[in-house]
Write a structure and sequence with these properties.
Blueprint: H1 24-33, H2 35-49, E1 57-61, H3 67-75, E2 80-85, H4 88-100, E3 107-111, E4 125-131, H5 140-149, E5 151-167, H6 180-197, H7 209-215, E6 219-230, H8 236-253, H9 259-269, E7 285-295
Parallel strand pairs: 1-2, 1-4, 2-3, 4-5
Antiparallel strand pairs: 5-7, 6-7
The structure holds S-adenosylmethionine.
Length: 299
């Protein structure tokens, strides 16, 4: 699920400051829920690199707590998988996770404020992955240019940037007017646009990711979309995750909603309410993630 907006600031503010450290558990749980999708993405990228590729170095840029970094270490057994992120607490978490999964030796971390120096200097990575991080940088094209520079010739760049908003409620959840989730999506889009406009060095760009990858000098540009489809009834961890998401939504985009929708959110996060996300039988989780890819030319 898209973890935005997600700041923990008080109700009544349109704060677009993100406290990434406070989001650690949420990001890791979100990654864990998406593990089947992440593993399929890594398999697709391994296939795209080709059976003969000697994959030694994979960068996960804006890794957060390193769920995908660890998937890469599993998928490419001869590779070092590097989590690159600006939040030290999340990198610590990536290391703990790697240790727990027995991947300790091959998962490393690099603290970097982007756009800036990626790990290992230019031209050293076989695969550079970035999921939901480039859109937190003011100059998205500049960020992609940096990802492309980190690749060795013939290396693959993969960015998870698009897809569809996650859905988890029926069109009419029986709370207020039908269509609540579409209105929540719209409120998040408004919040997201404000967040982007307030980023340092913010540049508006048409988010045509294939064109942006080509402008970064990459060739063979393509895309694939993967689905996460968890039908109702959801298990406990998925429900708890959705409740955390809804709680943050109430705090961050509550002001973009009318009173009826805010009341619906209050019911959804209420642990005792039969209509609450922890108890309702119809909650599901459906999300689509698009991965855009491009190759650094060999000459
Ligand atoms: C939405 S999370 C994505 C985490 C993970 N890649 C995923 O898909 O779940 C964005 C990540 O980008 C990192 N980030 C945001 N702005 C950054 C910057 N300027 N420099 C470095 N990292 C940054 C945050 O610390 C956070 O871990």
């Amino acid at each position: 699920m898209n973890p935005h907006p997600a700041s923990g600031h008080a109700h009544g503010h349109h704060s677009t400051d993100l406290d990434w450290e406070a989001l650690a558990t949420h990001l890791e749980t979100n990654g864990e829920l998406h593990l089947p999708l992440l593993r399929r993405a890594a398999d697709r990228l391994r296939t795209a690199l080709g059976p003969a590729a000697d994959v030694r170095r994979v960068l996960d840029v804006g890794s957060g707590p390193g769920v995908m970094t660890c998937v890469f270490a599993e998928t490419f057994p001869d590779a070092e998988a590097v989590a690159v992120d600006g939040t030290p607490a999340l990198l610590d978490r990536a290391l703990v996770r790697a240790g727990r999964l027995g991947l300790g030796g091959r998962v490393t971390v690099r603290h970097a404020e982007l756009p800036g120096d990626l790990d290992g200097g230019p031209g050293t990575a076989d695969l550079v992955w970035s999921s939901k991080a480039v859109h937190h940088l003011g100059d998205q094209q500049g960020a992609l240019d940096g990802l492309a520079r980190a690749l060795r010739p013939g290396g693959l760049c993969a960015g998870a940037a698009g897809g569809l908003p996650t859905r988890f409620l029926p069109r009419d959840p029986g709370l207020g007017r039908p269509g609540l989730q579409a209105r929540l999506d719209a409120a998040q889009e408004d919040w997201f646009a404000t967040m982007r406009a307030e980023l340092p060095g913010s540049v508006r760009v048409v988010e045509d990711w294939p064109a942006m990858l080509r402008r970064a000098g990459l060739t063979g540009v393509g895309a694939f979309t993967l689905l996460l489809d968890l039908p109702a009834p959801l298990d406990e961890p998925a429900r708890a995750h959705l409740r955390a998401h809804l709680t943050r939504l109430r705090d961050t985009v509550g002001d973009f909603l009318d009173a009826e929708d805010r009341a619906a959110l209050d019911v959804l996060v209420d642990p005792e309410a039969p209509g609450g996300i922890l108890r309702r039988p119809d909650a599901f989780l459906l999300s689509a993630t698009t991965v855009f890819t491009g190759v650094r030319p060999t000459r």
